[in-house]
Amino acid sequence: MTKQIFIPLIMLALFALQSCDQSASTTTDSDTTDTTVINASNTEDAPLKTLKADNQDIHVFDTDGIQPYLNKEDDNIHVVNFWATWCGPCVKELPYFEQANAEMDDLQLTLVSLDFEDKLESSLVPFVNKKDLKGDVIVVLPESEPELMESVSSQWTSGIPATLIYNKHKRQFYEGSMSYDQLMAEIEKFKL
Amino acid sequence: MLTGKNKTEKKASLTNAYKVGDKVSDFSLKNIDGEMVSMSDYADAEGFIVVFTCNTCPYSKMYEDRLKSLSAKYANDNWPLIAIQPNDPAVQPGDSYDEMVSYASAQGFNFPYLFDEGQKEYPKWGAARTPHVFIVEKTDDGNLLRYIGAADDNARDESKVTVNYVDKTIASIRAGETVDPDFTKAIGCTIKTK
C-alpha cells in the first residue's frame, strides 16, 4: 500500500538530501545503508525496539518517542487512537477506524497500543496479524501514565479507548468509545 | 506527575458522589469468606484504605503485590485495607464472586475482598477505574474522605515509584497536616457495567 512506504520514503529522501548537503569529504566514507543513521535524521526518535507483524513493522516508543506522531505537519487529517488488546471496548471499535482509513485517502491512522511490554510478542503481534490491521500500529511504554496522558491532552482522564484527531488547523480529543457514525461525524469537522 | 485538585471524572461520577472532605456512609458487602464486612467492624481503626479493584484488569494485577504490602504494613497500625470489586460479572465473567474467591486464594490476598453486589456501592464513591484508592479518616464527625486517586505515581514499575500516595496521605493525617495532593488521576481499566 502506498501509505506503508510513504514515511520511509520521506525519511530516505530526507537522508539523501542531508548527505547531498554535506561536503564531499564525508559522503565517501558514510555508510548509507545503516538504518540507525536513517532513524537519527532528526524527524523522528529511534524506537526502543521494533516488532515484526506480517504486514507492518510495529515500533515501540516511550512517551517522548510518540510525540512526532501527535504533531505531524502535512495536509492530512490525523486520527490517533489509543487502545490495547486487553481493552474490550477498544477492540470493538477498531474496525470503524480501519474502515474510515480505507475510505479516505487524506486520512492518516495511527493505532497507539498501550499493551504491556511482556505481552507484545504473545498478544499484540498475533492480534495485528489476525485482524490484518492497516492503520500504523505503534506501542507506547510510558514511564509515567499521567505524563503520557498530559502530553496527549489535558482532558484525558486516563481511560481508553481515546482518540486524538488533528490537522494543521484543528485539534480535538475524545475519551471513550466511538461508533462508526460518531467517528465519521467528527472527521467531517476537519474537512475544509 | 502530581496533580492537585482536578475536575471530577465525567463518566462514573454522579453529581452526589463523594468528594474529598465528605463524610462517607458505611457499607455491608460480602467478603470472599462469605461474611459481611463493614467499616464499623473495625472498632480500633484510625482510618481505612478502600481500594476498588478486580481480578481481570491488567492494572489491578500490577498493583496486587503493592496492595498486599500495604495491607500487611498498616494492619497493626489500625489502617485496614479493604478491597471492593465493582465490576458486573454479567459483563465481565472473570469478576464473578466465585472467581473472586479462587483468585484471592491463588494470589494470597491478605485483605477483605468484597463483592459490590448490584454495583450499588462504587457509584457512591465515584470510583471510575480499577484500581482506585480512597483513604478515609475516622473522626468524631464520622468517616471523612481524605484522598482519592492512584496508590502511587508509577503503575507499571514499582521500582520507579517516587511518591506512594497512601503512605503520604496517612502520614499527613497523623501529623495533622494538609493532605496534598488529595486527588490524583487513577490509572487503570474502566469499571465494567452494562
Sequence-ordered SSE layout with sheet pairings:
The complex is a heterodimer of chains A (192) and B (194).
Chain A: H1 2-21, H2 24-27, H3 35-39, E1 49-52, E2 57-61, H4 63-66, E3 77-83, H5 88-103, E4 107-113, H6 120-131, E5 136-140, H7 145-152, E6 162-166, E7 171-175, H8 180-188
Parallel strand pairs in A: 2-5, 3-4, 4-5
Antiparallel strand pairs in A: 1-2, 3-6, 6-7
Chain B: E1 29-31, E2 36-37, E3 47-52, H1 58-75, E4 81-85, H2 97-107, E5 113-115, H3 121-125, E6 129-130, E7 132-139, E8 142-149, H4 165-175, E9 189-190
Parallel strand pairs in B: 3-4, 4-5
Antiparallel strand pairs in B: 1-2, 1-5, 3-7, 6-9, 7-8
3D structure, described in words:
The complex is a heterodimer of chains A (192) and B (194). Chain A has 192 residues and is of the alpha/beta class. Chain A folds into two domains: 1-43; 46-188, Glutaredoxin. Chain A has eight helices and seven strands, in the order H-H-H-E-E-H-E-H-E-H-E-H-E-E-H. Chain A has helices at 2-21, 24-27, 35-39, 63-66, 88-103, 120-131, 145-152, 180-188; strands spanning 49-52, 57-61, 77-83, 107-113, 136-140, 162-166, 171-175. In chain A, strands 1-2-5-4-3-6-7 form a seven-stranded mixed beta sheet. In chain A, strand 3 (77-83), helix 5 and strand 4 form a beta-alpha-beta unit. Chain A is globular. Chain B has four helices and nine strands, in the order βββαβαβαβββαβ. Chain B has helices spanning 58-75, 97-107, 121-125, 165-175, and strands spanning 29-31, 36-37, 47-52, 81-85, 113-115, 129-130, 132-139, 142-149, 189-190. The longest helix of chain B has 18 residues, at 58-75. Chain B is globular. The model of chain B is unreliable at 1-13 (pLDDT under 50). Classes of the chains: A alpha/beta (192), B alpha+beta (194). The interface between A and B is medium-sized, with 17 and 21 residues.
Spell out the key features of this protein:
heterodimer; A: 192 residues; alpha/beta; Glutaredoxin; 2 domains; seven-stranded mixed β-sheet; 8 helices; 7 strands; 41% helix; 20% strand; globular; B: 194 residues; alpha+beta; two-stranded antiparallel ribbon; 4 helices; 9 strands; disordered N terminus
